[in-house]
Amino acid sequence: MTKFDEATQAIRVDESTYDVCLDPGYSIGGPLNGGYLMAVLLRAVVDASPHEHPVTTSAQFLRAPRPGPGQVRLEQIKTGRTATMTRATLVQEGTSFIEALVTTATLGDVAPDWTDGPSVAMPPVERCLKLPDPSPGSGITLNAQMEMLFDPPTVGWLDGRPTGRPESRAHFRLAEPQDPDPYVLALAVDALPPVVFSAGMRGWAPTVDLTWHLRALPAPGWLTLIGSGRLISDGWFDEDVEVWDSAGRLVAQSRQLARVGRG
C-alpha cells in the first residue's frame, strides 16, 4: 500500500458506512485539498458498488473538514447492469462536510471512437518549472505529496508577471512512485493552483462545486494537466481541467465553481 493509498483508505463498517481518517499531509494552508477529499469518498463508493470505476462525480463542498477521523455514509440511489448511482456524504462528529453524487461503471481498455487533442500544447517536462517549496509554518503540505512541473508562462504570477488570463498547466505525478489510477485522477483534477492566480488574483480560493468525469484508465507515467477559466465575475470564477496521460489520451475532465481568493 502506498502513502496515497493509505491516506485515502475507507474501512467498511456496514453496507452504508465507512470509517476514514483524513490525512494532514494534503493541506493547503489549513483546509484539505478537494481532490484528495473526493478520492477518500470514492474509495468507499467503489468498494460498495458492483462496478469498478467512478465515471462521474459531482461534489458540493459545504464546509472545510479537518484532518482526523470521519465517516463516509452512502445511499445507493439506483443500480443497474451498466451503472450504479450513489449519494456519498463525508461526516465528522455528526456534521456533513461534503455531499457527492457518484456514478460508477466498469470501463474497458478500448480505443476511442473519436478524440480531439489537448486544447493547449504543453512543453516537455525538461522545459517546465517546479514551484518553490512552501515556507516553513505555512501549513501547505500538499506540495510534498506530488511532483508538478509547470508551463513557465502560467506561473509568472510568482514574480509579479501574471499572464492576465485564468490559466494553469503542469505535468503531474505523485511524489511516491505509483501508477495513476482513478483515485490519483481525483487528486489531479484539483491539484493545480487556482487559474485566477494567473489572472492576477491571489489567496485561498475555496471550491463550492466540483464535477469531474473519468474518461479512460490512465497509462503509467506523467499526467498532463491543462486548466483554464471562462469568467471571473462578482467574486466567483470557473475552472476547467483536462487530464491527459502519457499515451496521449484524455483520461479525465473537470469543472469547478469557486470563490475568488481573499488576501
TrEMBL record:
In this protein, which residues make up the domain named Acyl-CoA thioesterase-like C-terminal? 126-260
Q: Which organism is it from?
A: Streptosporangium becharense
The protein here is known as Acyl-CoA thioesterase
Q: Name one Pfam family in it.
A: 4HBT_3
Identify the Gene3D superfamilies for this entry.
Acyl-CoA thioesterase, double hotdog domain (2.40.160.210)
According to the entry, every stretch annotated as the Acyl-CoA thioesterase-like N-terminal HotDog domain falls at 25-106
